[in-house]
Description:
This protein is α+β, with helices and mostly antiparallel strands.
Amino acid sequence: MKTINITLTNDVIMEKNKDKGGFAMEQTKKCPSCGGTLIFNPGFDSLVCQSCGHNEIIPELVSKTPVTEMDFLTAQNTASHDWGMEAKIVQCKQCGAETIQNKLQLSGLCPFCGSTTVDAADPAQDIMAPQGIIPFKITEKRAYYIFKDWIKDRFLAPEKLAANAQLGKFYGIYVPVFTFDVFTDSRLNAHYVENNRRQNMSALFQYQVDDFPVVASKQLASDKLLLSVLKDYRTNEAKPYTPDAMAGFPCEHYSIGLSEAWNSCGPELNWHLRDMVSKTDKTHVLLGINMNTNYYNLKYKYLIVPVWINSFFYDNRLFTIVINGQTGKIEGQWPKSFGTFAKKTALFFLGSFGFD
């Protein structure tokens, strides 16, 4: 087995293209019955015509074929570049964002600022295609009701927040994610307290990491809301990539290369291993855990995963929410009210002392 250090720096397939990150515009497909536009139908693994209701099952999404991991060190020679459509890069005149869209598409909408003023830029070259996709399971209507249930129970929120929050339109996008599988071999040093005495320990800890996720977008990698819902994806349910599942939905292209994504996950992966150590040794509460880890047989998957994004206004302030398009997990921002805090505190003390 080859040893792979966490500070691995060899350049692989995406590094020369990582600055071309942006949104791949949604795939367009025509209805065979009426010529209308087919869009992906979340939750049904199918395409549906907006005009006549014609329905087409997407074979890849009902397939039992798993999305297999690729070897990290040979990524440059084995990665697919077939997006299932001929692509071109366009640049928004309004905000400067670069996006990738179907070459046959005559117009486009910038996902960043909403502008329709876009011009052709340099042609896309060697853009790595996803291996797999987690299709939308949550519909836009369901996302709306998830929000309504969520907003009613926000801690310290103003009493009229649920009634007065001015919700915008939900936007569904696919976000790029790398997942890593790697066998870890760690020399572990720690201590625990037993009978009021410190006991030192040293051990060998081996663990197989499976589908450790890293957001492959510089714009979204620091978004705490997105990172929170990211951990909720069932990546083992990913399906082989097909552009049909993107019909009606934009897809952000990676702006963090494969090597960069692996190098960036070191601290979080280390905390994950420490957590696994603590869960493995249930007889002691381990303290001062120190690990020296080697990594073997590193593999990866490049997936695109679904997210619903929205925002709402309250008291002239904007608050963002993010919903996992597969599981429905929601994270968001909301206003806090001192008046609500004071009222709930008063009710708590009144209840504690038996006042009605």
